Fold each of these.
Amino acid sequence: MTRNTSGDNLISFLNRSPSPYHAAETASYHLLEGGAQQLDESSPAWSSLKPGGSAFIVRGGGSIAAVRIPTGFSAERPLPFHIAVAHTDSPCLRLKARPAESTHGYRQWGVEVYGGALFNSWLDRDLGIAGRVHRVGSSPGTAKLIRMEDHPIRIPQLAIHLERTVNEQGLILNPQKHLVPITGQSSGPSLESLLENAAGAPFTELAFDLCLYDRTPACYGGTCDEFIYSGRLDNQAMCHAALAAFVDAPAGDAIQVMVLFDHEEIGSVSAQGAESNLLVTFLERIALSLGLTREAWLSLLPRSFIVSADMAHGIHPNYPDRHEPDHFPQLNKGVVLKSNAGLRYASDGFSSARFLGWARRAGVETQRFINRTDLGCGTTVGPGLSAQLGIPTVDAGTPMLSMHSAREMCGAGDHGQMISVLKAFYLGG
Ligand code: ZN
């Protein structure tokens, strides 16, 4: 549990992916490099998709779905789908459509809160801006990715002298009033002009989806580099694990599928979120391209399997009472299998047993997470996908601390373990 190749690769993935759109772009880059072809969802037929081939689609800029068909695939004895899913988005602050009114000599730009962000973690950081811009009247597929970090912006915390009770009573932040970043002084150039330069068009010609991100690069930490510190570990770490397993897995007895969804942190209800038809239409179109009837496709679903990969709560040594005393994951102790009797996680006895089998085959250490019975449980894309498709599903991931902070941490040793179990899963059986 120190520096290692999968940790190095994760760090480089994180540093290339300051927004969900960049994460999808980084994944596309690696898929193309691995020989996959990009397909267009609006094209009437995916006739190029053949046994032995690999392909992917991007939907809405932030979601990506990939497939690899084993060479020996035949419509007479079709193989099930083995599907690993994760999400590209992370809680963050997003720029509103227009800058705020300049006051007291400062230029400012209001933000909306995306997902369940920990507000305090965004204070006193050097923030970059990343996402995608569209030109007014432009056609689909012409969005431009931008990343602006040369002129960091900042949300300064109020000095303790002006709020003497903050350490005793806690920091209360009103997102409308207290999270408005300062972008510069009124006398300097406006952020609009910098955006225009980055986008290559006048501000009035632009519509955009732009996230703030912490410019501090991802890095190793701890006395023997046993940790990784970064923004967006939830859930770009699992995006990277699914991608690395998909790209490296040898062909086996399954149709290998990887889907990285946008919009999990805001409930997954969008054209490209996990509650959309993305996965169901992707699978059906693969089946049709391979010459399967609709009936044959439907009969594959109960034989298929989904691993919903999302980060898990490691136990925090300063708050051990927040965990169930017999089911608390620890960093660098292996992959976490998550379950909940209310099915906030999709795992049940059957899917857990199958997942533990792949972990054993891969020689991967596992640990269990069940929330305290007196605390509400988080959720993932697993239960919704399982319900839509009728495919057995397990929720798993690696443990972390500071979930939903602008700067999170996880164990450097767990990441390679997650990749190994996903590779064993992709082999089928
Ligand atoms: Zn997550």
Amino acid sequence: MPETLLSPDEIRTMFSRAMSRMYRDEVPAYGTLVDLVRAVNAGVLAEDPVARDRLAAGGALGRISEERHGAIRLGTAAELATMRRLFAVMGMAPVGYYDLSAAGVPVHATAFRPLGEAALAANPFRVFTSLLRLDLIADPDLRDEAESVLSRRTIFTDACLALIAAAETRGGLAPAEGERFVAEAIETFRWHPVANVSHALYRRLHGAHRLVADVVAFKGPHINHLTPRTLDIEAVQRQMPARGIVPKAVIEGPPARKVPILLRQTSFKALEEPVTYTDGTTTVAGSHTARFGEIEERGLALTPKGQALYDRLLAATRAEIRPAADGSNAAEYIARLREVFAAFPDDLDTLRREGLGYFRYAATGRPAREGDIALDADALVAAGLLTAEPIVYEDFLPVSAAGIFQSNLGDDAAQDFRANPSRARFEADLGAPVHDLHQAYAEIEAASLARARLALARDAAIA
Ligand code: OOG
Ligand code: NI
């Protein structure tokens, strides 16, 4: 009899735990941050039964302490395509296209994450995955050299590639294979203290853009941060210095609000780590700054209408004042952001009735009558027949991502690339289209409404 296969959800949880263990070893400050986030989350849940019930209703209570995202940066189309197959083994699909060139960072990206409610509730582990765009590098000689260095490296172990192929042909992995797969896959994300290039080439790559050096100079796409989810980002931010971690001055994303929307993030500065550079004969002891820590708080997922309002208000704020990298105008920026975002409704009812966010509907159990069934969702909620709970945002924000990139690459890292989205090229390199970010939420909302309406209809038939 064939052995039972592990579910992709199980493999994802094994992988996410293994990654967290590895990053705790490699970057001790990450472990400190995880411990702090746990303590703050436990405090919030103990003090705020409403928040606890809301999380429990959305199926999110169990996942909070497991929840984290990571980020990697890849160098070639082939690496990206294989990475898609690797993540597919653990039920992670590419969602969304992020063009960071507009923000002065020469990459474009997607996020690999589970789709669907059950998989997200099991473990929402995500990896923000960027692909370097050498086409945005001006110097043609440097571009050729970078391409040739990248074309010679292999970032996956042979055993990892064999297990990906086995999972594809057999539709999954048996338990022992799953364990082996996780151990092999982790190798790709490990830090390599010996660079892939000479110190001279590192300097030139670094001169073109720090990010180019971070991708091209190394043997693999080291995981550059791992981010736990907190229920109170302001509290964690306040308590970080007492634990010896200095956060960046401004939290990226929307201001503090009664109803959290989208995503708020902050990070601590990247470490300067010792690296040996070598051209095969001469070695140079140097350093590189890449890996950092980050925390995030997640709120309501916004519809395209809500997202457009968010984008407009953020752009309006940033047209007036931009947070300086040294934190010198942090208070002014935060104050202005709050003022401008006063135009964004801040109660769940208005957010839903104005179609700004996505909601999960459920029948309250109050007896429905024949005529009720024809009412629209808003009327059903108003009549007390349906509840509507906010759906959590599972994705990323390009402006925040650019802020995070910048804060750990150094303050002079922004360059003036023309906004230059290239989604078709990205999807060709990926070997598949990316899933539409909004469709994933719209489907969850629509399915919940259909289920709730069925329950009402059954109810009315019995009455
Ligand atoms: C990724 C930055 C994006 C986030 O949370 O927005 C990101 C990177 O620095 O490689 O992780
Ligand atoms: Ni991040």
Amino acid sequence: MVILMLGAQGTGKGTVAGLLSEKLGWPQISTGDIFRKNMKEETPLGVEANKYMSKGELVPDEITVPMVANRLNEEDAQAGAILDGFPRNLAQAEKLDEILQEKGKKVDLVINLTSPKNEIITRILNRRVCSNQACKTTYNLTMHPPKKEGICDKCGAELVQRGDDSDEAAIQNRLNIYDEKTLPLVEFYSQKGVLRTEEISEKTGRLGKDVAEDILKEIKGDIKIG
Ligand code: ADP
Ligand code: ZN
């Protein structure tokens, strides 16, 4: 089963994807995480991606699409996968259909997260991630803080802020790009009948973990796990 996450930055895509991945035992394939790992290791892919990421721009499809196709070929992604951060434009979505079709698969469920704009910016500025590459758990200083300040609950590593999360101009740029390039995917997947939209808001109290719980109940009832 292929699940994909849609939604602007700071709506909690990573949180929902992480919970689904943990409970379903399928990998969370985050293109942003793969790029950041490569940046840290200073691979040629990382150096190239960094030119775009530091400005909040999309990394070109010629780089991103083959990277995802390779990841989807790996053994651990055969039973199911949760795509987080891909596709980000129509061309990527169409390419993804082709990649999956060749494997006799399709996008089964698209979880589209929305959130009030004022909450989004605060949430991005308050976002902290675990510096341990094998863990990468995301926290939020106000909504979902770690038990001990600056330390990951799960593995004890230091929490850090992503470079592009501390720069308000880069954040605004990412939100504009989302509206322009990624929002059309809502219509694309809605027409395919696989879209599920969920609003995450501190005001209504419906958070990522509530959405993940509801979806898990439905999926586990629907398909056999393992
Ligand atoms: P956010 O959701 O906060 O933007 P991500 O980790 O998803 O964080 O992405 C960080 C950056 O990585 C993006 O701003 C973009 O530069 C790059 N990126 C991630 N996914 C893609 C993609 N599918 N296509 C192009 N660039 C991407
Ligand atoms: Zn950790």
